[in-house]
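Reviewers asked in the last cycle whether our approach scales beyond single polypeptides. To address this, we selected a multi-component target totalling 974 residues and predicted its structure end to end. The input consisted of the following lines:
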Amino acid sequence: MAKITFDGIEIEVPDGTTILNAARQIGGGIVPPAMCYYTPLKGSGGKCRACLVKVSAGSAKDPRPMPKLVASCITTVQDGMVVENTINEQVMDVRKGIVEMLLINHPLDCPVCDQAGECSLQDFAFEHGLSTTRYEEERRTFEKIDIGPLIQLHMTRCILCYRCVYVADQLTPERVHGVLGRGDASEIGTYIENIIDNDFSGNVIDVCPVGALTDKTFRFKQRVWFTKPVNAHRDCETDKCNGHVTLWYKGKDVLRVTARKDEYGEVKEWICNTCRFDKKETSDWTLEGPAHINRASVIAQNHYELPVVNPQVILDLPESTTRELERNPPLRLGGLNN
Amino acid sequence: MGRKLLTEHINVEGINTFEVYRKHGGYRSVEKALKTMTPDEVTEEVKKSGLRGRGGAGFPAGMKWGFLAKPEGVPRYLVCNADESEPGTFKDRQLMTKLPHLLIEGMITGSYALGARTSYIYIRGELLYVLRILEKAIAEAYAAGFLGENILGSGYSLDLHVHPGAGAYICGEETALLESLEGKRGNPRNKPPFPAVQGLYARPTVVNNVETIAAVPIIVNEGGDEYAKIGIGKSTGTKLISACGHLNKPGIYEIELGLPVEEFIYSDEYCGGIWKGRELKAVVAGGSSVPILPKELILKTAAGENRLMSYESLSDGGFITGTMLGSGGFIAMDETTCIVKNTWNFSRFYHHESCGQCSPCREGTGWLEKVLHRLEHGHGSMHDIDLIVSVAKQIEGNTICPLGEAAAWPVAAAVRHFRHEFEWHVTNPKEATVPGAVYRGAAVLA
Amino acid sequence: MEPTTAPAKPQFSAAAQAEIKRLLTHYPEDRSKSALLPILHIAQAEFGGWVSPEVQDLVAETLNIKPIEVYEVSSFYTMYNLKLVGKHVLEICRTGPCMLRGSDELTEHLERITGAKVGETSPDGLFTLKEVECLAACGFAPVVQVREQYYEQLDTPEAVDAMLNELREQIHRPILSWEENELPNSLKNN
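The resulting structure, written as structure tokens, was:
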């Protein structure tokens, strides 16, 4: 075990834990943002530099500060380490700079992007960015690439986190896409026209922190904050899929199916394409209850997370009533959403 | 006249062949090391010599060797970094072309010290013709029993291979080089783990520059203490300086560290002064990534002392008034040089060479180039000058590998010392965009 | 990125296959992917100076790796030409030290003479102009590389013409043999 101090808070974690995961054990506003790191994906992290923190004391044995800021997602703790995140001005400044860098070539097309409302870049920019830009040059654009009937690749939005590449490497039998080109001309692609087609390919949508990979079956159907997440499961026959999902309802309709994500947007159980794309009837599923949504999320702003209302009940109500409930969600009436 | 250690025999006819090289004392260090020294004793001599990495970082080579993990039963590697591509640097190419056996001798002696049984020379792909020269020399060394099984009956065996890159400056960064050697994109790795623990194929690895490895035979032959007597202070030994730009005699010079910069530029023994009878304006002393210095500061330190060609003297004054010895890529610029254009050129280089893996470098290098392009072409504003300094600062120190710094430093230094020239481009866009136009005002001292 | 396609499945010559076999002995058996860069060089030399998707697939097959692993690498390194090129690719160094000694003028001169702009191939199909970054020959600037040959100190029209004439007369330059390779002039006499 190693005892560390993170933003003045002491915590003891197992040896080998990364600084980021130690901070996540503390939780709350002190947790550094992570745009590329993804716990279940081996090798991820270190690239976006959003999670840089100051190590003001390396360890009890060697209490010298580390000369440069370090990526908290890949740096493991040492006993006696002292880490500064939100309390360190340099860290906050650098983070502003990282937001700026990630945005200079981003199209900022949130109004037409399906990811809006659950986009890590949007959250990151909201929390750490400036409302103006100093970038006057032409923005980089890519042509849209078709990678099959189910997944849309919109490279212009990509921040090159490499997560989708790791998914293909670690979850699917044959990777057909990767990072091509170099520098700021790097792109995710298949090089020759190819479709990404295998049982688990849909997971690239869930791991994408931005709107670069989106679900074609959900495309432009609804803003996510007008949909209601409900956890559900089914007996899935696909090998390695246990059918634990989140259904996103609009009224009685299941508009999309995703894997379940934790509060840091990470999927713990991957789901297969059958569950994701083919099972969009409530009758396909056994409902468990509302999915937990972070209170700060825009998705929670509009909707309920109120255990008193069984979603099954809502689904059984006549449509006029559900519409009314949408206009006046019980959560607001209950005043619990503060 | 300084001592020549590496290049003593460089102009001997046929020195690129095993036979002639051997006749001139070649491979003595292999005999000495394998027959009379333990591997640790070889490492000890390198430590004593004070030899510093010649690729640019200047890290003590013996210390780097000392960090190598040696777990039982796990192969370890010595990899030679011959990916010479720092603009202004062209010494390794010359050394390998003319003295291939010196590098091979260093590889054998070094591999013995580190306990490597297979070693690689990673050479930049553009130098395929040098790869052929090395492979031919390696074949000769095998035939003479200096490579392969049971070298000189010592029981020590070594295989040595040459591996080409394919056009990527970033592969000079040691972990990118290892990725490339594994047949992948040259994306630098996150550190730790360092190559000394997990390098090539996740096994312990030392990566050294060509010139560093070429110095090993001399150190083993003469002894580390003797080597350390050459040079000045912590800058021991000799260094190959690649001199280029507006010099009368550009080329490669082996100097004893501690030579005054002024003598290096102006004496006939070295660069013979500035071409076309012009005045010196500025120097980039250690490859394109180190800070540019105006004439006044490259010849004398801020304190008025003679600037010397050594790690310490060149960095005297930090980045405010100093620079770095770096790789020894010495680029001289005469009075007609446009600093803005040159800075844009360097920025374009780093933009082109960024691997694109981490966001500050991928996005920042392109941003810098675009704004500098605007400034150079007369479309910039005063605000842009501060902008590039700010963007450079946002990259520096926040990237996975040192390419971030390499891209940021030249920009910051150019504005630091030549701000007036940038301002002139803003206030006189018409004059500034005339081909060959250059600001003739005095360089501004910090 | 839309590579041009070439017809018919390519195959390595016997000489190339022998060279590949030799290269594979350089790396641990389970690490044959290490040979990817050198094999791509061989492929480029074998198949007309560029690597088509079909050629890249052949390389993938040779190494028993996924095609995407080859595409990722070929598109990262600038020496691999992903599109059809002329008989000679003139790689003109444009970086600082060469620029200080006239690489801009050299490029303009070459564009004028060959009728091709940078990135294009001359109408006669002989020359493709390609700007590259530092070739590590800064002391002999300005510099052009053509395959394995360095042409240095191209600071006069005469020097450039001599280079082009030499190239025009070349029928085929052997690639896989070191014996045939000459040193650049600067290294011969320096």
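Residues 24 and 177 of chain C are 18 Å apart (CA to CA). We regard this as preliminary and will revisit it once experimental data from Aim 1 are available.
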